[in-house]
Amino acid sequence: MRTDKLHIYIYIVSTILVLSMLYRIMKVNTENTLFVEKKDEYYKETAHNTILEENLYLEYERYVTTLQTNCNNISRCGPKGDTGYDICVDPLYKPKRPCLVYSFGSHYHFEFEDGVHKMFNCQIHTFDPSIPLAGHSIPKHVEFHLIGLSNFDHHTIFGWEMKTLASIRRYLNHSFTTLDILKLDIEGDEWKAIPQILSTISNKYIKQIVLEVHFGRHTNKLKDDGYRRFNLNNWGDTDSFTQINVLKQLKHHGFNIFKWAINPRSKLRLQHSSKGSVFTMHIISLKNINVLN
Length: 293
Prior knowledge:
The protein is an alpha/beta fold. It has helices spanning 2-64, 111-120, 165-171, 190-198, 240-252, and strands at 74-77, 85-88, 100-104, 123-127, 142-145, 147-149, 154-155, 161-163, 179-184, 206-214, 217-219, 230-234, 255-262, 267-269, 277-279, 281-288. The protein has one domain (61-288): Rossmann fold (3-Layer(aba) Sandwich). The chain is built from 5 helices and 16 strands. The strands form 5 sheets. A 7-stranded mixed β-sheet has the order 5-4-3-9-10-16-13, with helices on both faces. Strand 3, helix 2 and strand 4 form a beta-alpha-beta unit.
């Protein structure tokens, strides 16, 4: 009798152990399946987001490389490369004394200003708060200001003084003076500054804008293959969709592209497009078809 009970006990214990092992195996397999499914969902979502982002890059490149108006006479102020800019010198747009030029972003490179001075002898104001003045030489034909352009007046955490275009124009007594050329190369801050400029009547007194556009996200340093890679942060802390809308606002307010050029150092590889790559920085020249004289 005792032997039978012992056999039954051993059978029950063995069955419990086997069932326990089977449960653990099934649980691990289930968890692995769920992990794989979640991993697949993550990669699908990541790929989907990447495709959407790449489509915005393609839309951006199509937009800035499509001419919206014509300029019959174009002059280069400054050398070839990213320190010179193309401006329209058709009769309505050609700077004539007394003429006024604002140049935002210089890093103490004044080739553009030198070209403007040589060709038109305008009053030139250059603005850049990012580097102290000490140790730098300013050309005699340039009035230099340690002020940056923004969508509101403030000081940054670096101590830089930032102002709106309207505030700067008031400060210099230029509120209703025609601005012959507005040059912007402000490392992504254009996405905040431009909507503020367009929201005021003073945009009617700007004849033309030359602008280096920094689109999408910051990119890492140029790789050995000649391409850059995505970074995490957007230029100007502004999403790509909004950036495209800002460019469209320029056209809505009369600023039409008549010339464009790529920044060759901004080539970005695309993973899901047959095009293969885009450039994320362009220099565009725009004339204001609604300008008030």
